[in-house]
């Protein structure tokens, strides 16, 4: 996320903060005036300033030295448009991360889920007897309600990353090219195994009732149901993705790429597709496996692979006779 924040600062946010929280607004701050023992000749700045500047002047900001303040006053008429909130100011970072995360998840959700719903999801499944009335609208509504709380819960991870506490790195050969490529399966295996257990624990009856049950409202999910869950549920299942980079080194661009692809995969496995018999079926936890999870609840907890379910005794093999589309076809015949 620090990479995204830096790019956003370069392209847009520096200009936005310079206008929203301009350094010039603090020339009229009573605190500043008092600190300088300012005489009457500086006071007209306050009376001629905009209402917005007067409001902004009361916001917290990093302390300015006496020398810096005096310099500002001496150059007040030619002061460049810069923000009183520099890039490393934590309130600015938190505000920026909140906006970026909310905008980003909405774009990813509607882009990937929309494309999957239009081109991959079998719309005949919407005639399944267990498909809810107005389900697509309800899935979208639930997702949009979850996003702000999930963002709030995730902010500490992103902030720690921006402040340099993670093991993200920039150079391609920092840990060698072998590790660069090996870190991809390591990331997938680590997060898959952790999510398996998080997901399985979410099915403990007491936890399930209060946190995970809303997601299983969608017996026949659409791609829009991929993020339609209780916000704590969504956050808990995302923790392994954030935890990984505080334990293992990972290239910064590679991490961002994997993070986007993970969201795509989460959407992809919610298309209720029961294609069976392909060569990856016994190893990859695909849409057919996750469809069975929504139908039977206590099987196929994994995210990408089937190995954790096999080891944990929760694996169920997708078979063509379990396809919920058969019920839809039976209704057509009747």
Explain the overall architecture.
- By secondary structure, the protein is an all-alpha fold.
- Helix content is 59%, strand content 1%.
- The chain is built from 14 helices and two strands, in the order H-H-H-H-H-H-H-E-H-H-H-E-H-H-H-H.
- It has helices at 2-20, 30-36, 44-48, 51-56, 66-74, 90-119, 135-162, 177-201, 205-212, 231-247, 252-268, 287-296, 307-312, 325-333, and strands spanning 168-169, 250-251.
- Strands 1-2 form a two-stranded parallel sheet.
- The protein is globular, with a radius of gyration of 26 Å.
- Residues 36-48 have low confidence and may be disordered.
- Overall geometric form: globular
Quantity of strands, as a count: 2
User: What is the CA-atom radius of gyration, in angstroms?
Assistant: 26 Å
Q: Kindly, what is the distance between the CA atoms of the first and last residues, rounded to a whole number of angstroms? A: 53 Å
| Average residue pLDDT | 86
The percentage of residues in β strands lies in under 5%
The total count of helices amounts to 14
Kindly report the spatial arrangement of strands forming the biggest sheet.
Answer: 1-2
Subunit arrangement of the protein: single chain
**Structural class label:** mainly alpha
The major sheet is characterized as: 2 strands, parallel
Order of helices and strands: HHHHHHHEHHHEHHHH
User: Percentage of helical residues?
Assistant: 55-70%
Can you tell me the residue ranges where pLDDT is under 50 for at least 5 consecutive residues?
36-48
């Amino acid at each position: 996320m620090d990479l995204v924040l830096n790019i956003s600062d370069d392209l847009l946010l520096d200009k936005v903060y310079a206008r929203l929280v301009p350094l010039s607004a603090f020339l009229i701050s009573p605190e500043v005036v008092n600190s300088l023992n300012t005489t009457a000749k500086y006071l007209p700045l306050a009376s001629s300033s905009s209402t917005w500047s007067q409001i902004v002047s009361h916001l917290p900001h990093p302390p300015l030295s006496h020398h810096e303040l005096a310099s500002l006053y001496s150059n007040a008429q030619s002061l460049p448009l810069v923000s009183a909130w520099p890039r490393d100011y934590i309130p600015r970072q938190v505000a920026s991360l909140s906006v970026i995360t909310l905008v980003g998840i909405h774009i990813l959700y509607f882009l990937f889920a929309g494309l999957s719903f239009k081109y991959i999801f079998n719309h005949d499944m919407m005639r399944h007897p267990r498909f809810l009335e107005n389900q697509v609208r309800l899935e979208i509504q639930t997702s949009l309600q979850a996003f702000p709380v999930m963002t709030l819960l995730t902010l500490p991870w992103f902030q720690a990353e921006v402040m340099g506490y993670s093991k993200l790195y920039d150079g391609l050969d920092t840990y060698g090219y072998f590790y660069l490529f090996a870190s991809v399966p390591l990331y997938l295996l680590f997060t898959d195994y952790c999510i398996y257990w998080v997901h399985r624990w979410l099915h403990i009856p007491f936890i399930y009732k209060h946190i995970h049950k809303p997601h299983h409202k969608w017996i026949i999910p659409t791609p829009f149901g991929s993020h339609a869950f209780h916000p704590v549920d969504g956050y808990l299942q995302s923790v392994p993705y954030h935890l990984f980079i505080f334990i293992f080194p990972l290239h910064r661009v590679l991490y961002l790429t994997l993070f986007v692809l993970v969201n795509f995969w989460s959407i992809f496995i919610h298309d209720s597709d029961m294609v069976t018999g392909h060569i990856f079926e016994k190893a990859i936890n695909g849409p057919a496996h996750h469809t069975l999870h929504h139908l039977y609840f206590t099987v196929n907890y994994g995210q990408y692979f089937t190995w954790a379910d096999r080891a944990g005794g929760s694996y169920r093999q997708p078979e063509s006779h379990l396809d919920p589309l058969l019920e839809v076809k039976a209704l057509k015949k009747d």
